[in-house]
Amino acid sequence: MELCQKLEDNLFVKDINLRYIEDNLNLVRIQSKKPHDPVEVITYPEEWRCVGIGTSAAVFQPKRYPEISIKVYADNFAQIALEESKVYEQLGQNPFFPHYYGRGNNYLVIEYRKGINIYDCLIQGIFIPEQVIFDVDNAIKYVRSRGLNPCDIHIKNILVNDGRGFLVDVSEYCKKYECKRWEYLKQAYYDYYLKVYRPGMTVPSWLLETIRKWFKLNEKNGDIKAFADRIIKMFF
């Protein structure tokens, strides 16, 4: 198996019991009800910790092996595991993304990186330093230098740790469409976030979800300034 080959060849995870991973994966059940909504995690092993939920997959950290994370896709998105593994291989060794170890039919095994995503920073009132913006910009330059397209960069796949930023979820980088999400986020950071943020200021999750839905409606017409002004006037 490709997973066994890659894991056994990697000294960092040489002591991981592959049977343990496979057996526990049988206890994971994930369901996707709507394509653009987060997946629903129905069951997973007691010895695993769910550390992230996206629109196509959920990410788990085995307590026995905290140095790795396992990204498991819902059945109707299982093919993305192969696509994302190829992107990781093309990215190669770099400081901007978790290290990739191997894959199965519907899952990836990657390095676990400590951090809190920007979405949770906003909810918990954790300040997002400008260095994070610089780091994401550098990561995007690196992705392009590897012949890939840095798409779908949003507040749930940018992690912050010790004042530095890095990216997770590279599944869209093989696509060819033009994506301006990062440009909009960066503009919002300088034009609005730095102006309205006060120490400890939190943003409720329902507001972030409202912004997400409104953004999808406004993204196509490109009127992001009018959209952002509307949010600021209504809530800040």
Explain what you see.
By secondary structure, the protein is an alpha+beta fold. 40% of the residues lie in helices and 19% in strands. It has eight helices and ten strands. It has helices at residues 2-9, 18-25, 80-91, 118-124, 130-145, 181-196, 205-219, 224-235; strands at 29-31, 40-43, 48-53, 57-62, 68-73, 100-103, 107-111, 116-117, 158-161, 164-167. The strands form three sheets. It has a five-stranded antiparallel beta sheet with strand order 3-4-5-7-6. Strand 6 and strand 7 (107-111) form a beta hairpin. The longest helix has 16 residues, at 130-145.
Number of strands: 10
Helix and strand element order: HHEEEEEHEEEHHEEHHH
Mean pLDDT: 86
Cα(first) to Cα(last) distance is 53 Å
What labels describe this entry?
three-stranded antiparallel beta sheet; globular; 19% strand; 236 residues; 40% helix; alpha+beta
Task: Annotate the secondary structure layout.
Blueprint: H1 2-9, H2 18-25, E1 29-31, E2 40-43, E3 48-53, E4 57-62, E5 68-73, H3 80-91, E6 100-103, E7 107-111, E8 116-117, H4 118-124, H5 130-145, E9 158-161, E10 164-167, H6 181-196, H7 205-219, H8 224-235
Antiparallel strand pairs: 1-2, 3-4, 4-5, 5-7, 6-7, 8-9, 9-10
Quick structural summary:
The chain has 236 residues and is an alpha+beta fold. Helix content is 40%, strand content 19%.
